[in-house]
Amino acid sequence: MNKYQSARLDSFNLIVKESKNNPNSLTLVPKFGSVIERLETICSNLEEFRIFQEKDLTGITEDKEATHENLIDSTIEIAGAVYSFAHDMGNNSLMSKVNFKSTALEKMSQSEVLTVAGIVLEEARAIPAESLANEGITSEELSAYGELISVFKSIKSSNKEAVIDRSGATEKINTLFKEASSLLKNKLDRLASQFKRKDPEFYFKYKAARVVQHRTSPKNEPEEPTNAPA
Predict the structure, then answer these.
(1) Is the torsion defined by CA of 186, 191, 192, 193 positive or negative?
(2) Under 8 Å CB-to-CB from 223, ≥6 apart: which residues?
(3) pTM for the full model?
(4) Disulfide-capable partner of 32 in 21, 40, 171, 191 (CB 3.0 to 4.6 Å)?
(5) How does pLDDT run across 55-68, given as a tens digit for each residue?
């Protein structure tokens, strides 16, 4: 939620607060009161979606980067052991499958690194445990490598889901703001003019609450009049 939206939300909440603090005034124009109830619900929903929208992805990103580095290092180690075994066996096909260097892996996308890791793991598992241990990779290390691959897949998926959650929250926030704006312009502002005669004090409280304090709206988003109602 940007600064302008936050200021609008503050204005919405203030309108609701002033209205709730003047229940006798609302009885003068019942429809005004029912619209305020809906605006209050919108404000509550906006606060909830703002939490999702502003969810901090820093922790997930840091975990993913650390695991990514570990996966590359482990892949090079195990691929090297498999390559050495294949060389002794004169297995050129296997050598070509695991012929990777760290510089090449570092340039790959995360999905490509996962693909390479999967190939290396599969080929390493096909080698007798004793032979692979002779190349320096124990069964425990190979199992840990398989777990590392699974962890990286999980973190990668979690990060994507978090980004999707934020995107969905942003879309819902925009929809709620549009509804609130419509209620203000087409209902509350129109009905509030009656209070100028029936309850001047409440009228001026509503007018003051209606002002959006942050006057700079984002590009392509026209700002609402800050002095409504007239």
Answers:
(1) positive
(2) 4, 212, 215, 216, 217
(3) 0.50
(4) 191
(5) 555 554 555 677 78
